[in-house]
Design a protein that fits this description.
The complex is a heterodimer.
Chain A: H1 10-13, H2 15-24, E1 30-31, H3 32-38, H4 43-55, E2 59-64, E3 72-77, H5 79-108
Antiparallel strand pairs in A: 1-3, 2-3
Chain B: H1 2-28, H2 32-51, H3 54-71, H4 102-108, H5 117-148
Chain lengths: 112, 157
């Protein structure tokens, strides 16, 4: 059994939130509607998941007025969020590597 | 058995994160028409510059200003359909300046008469082509870096 390594973040590990963090890690900030369209997440789900991440201070939301039309909401990972996401990805890689090593040991079989 | 079930989600999670990055980058990528329009402006600016009449030079300066404004890869937060990231190499707007390095060189090659029309058109077409190719290259390079999660500067992954 592979134990959860340091940096593994249960909040980020949820499928939608992990995809959100991964998407946000590719840019300084992304507009709400772009996230919604690109990741095919409905607006209520996106709002709910972002609020959870915001409560944990992993993301920041900023509503900015536009020259024309209604204001747009921009989302970005905070510095804490960047670190938490990076640590989580490192932890996932560690789990995968450890699992691979265990599988290799198993294939060798018991030694006499 | 229990072990293999436990390790599967981590692998799937990494794949899912990688897919999410690619999806959002695909949505943020600058369309070809935007680069083509920018390149056409740069080409037209060069043609006018070689015409060497005062109004043509003035018009070329205006075009260069418009092209520079359009070519800014990311005015932070003001554009919905552009990658709002300045971490990747070649992503900063300063690279746009390279497109106009030949401008002072051309202005030094002063003659009393306007350049022949074919030369102006050839230089304009060349400038437009170079701009288009470099813009597409820069974008492809940046998107590839971002998609791979290669963030040397911030050591994200």
């Amino acid at each position: 059994m592979v134990a959860e390594p340091a940096g593994f973040n249960q909040l980020i590990h949820s499928p939608v939130r992990l995809r959100l963090c991964a998407a946000l890690a590719t840019a300084n900030e992304i507009e709400f509607e772009v996230l919604e369209r690109a990741l095919a997440i409905t607006s209520p789900t996106l709002s709910k998941q972002l609020r959870l991440l915001q409560d944990a201070e992993l993301v920041e939301l900023e509503r900015r007025p536009q020259s024309f039309g209604r204001p747009h909401t921009w989302v970005r990972l905070t510095r804490t969020g960047e670190r938490a996401y990076a640590a989580h990805v490192r932890a996932l890689n560690q789990i995968v590597r450890a699992a691979g090593a265990e599988a290799a040991d198993d294939s060798v079989g018991p030694r006499e | 058995m229990a072990d293999s079930e436990a390790e599967l989600p981590a692998e799937i999670a990494l794949i899912s994160a990688s897919e999410a990055r690619a999806q959002v980058l695909g949505a943020l990528a600058r369309p070809l028409w935007a680069d083509a329009a920018l390149s056409a402006l740069v080409g037209a600016a060069y043609v006018l510059m070689l015409y060497r009449l005062w109004w043509a030079l003035l018009a070329s300066v205006v075009l260069v200003a418009i092209a520079t404004a359009l070519g800014m890869p990311r005015t932070r937060g003001s554009r919905v359909h552009q990658v709002a990231d300045d971490r990747a190499v070649l992503a900063q707007s300063k690279w746009m300046i390279l497109a106009f390095v030949p401008v002072p060189v051309i202005s030094l090659l002063r003659t009393d008469e306007p350049s022949p029309w074919w030369l102006a058109l050839a230089v304009g077409a060349l400038a437009a082509a170079v701009t288009l190719i470099s813009q597409r290259f820069i974008q492809r390079y940046q998107l590839r870096r971002l998609a791979s999660g290669d963030y040397g500067r911030y050591d994200l992954l």
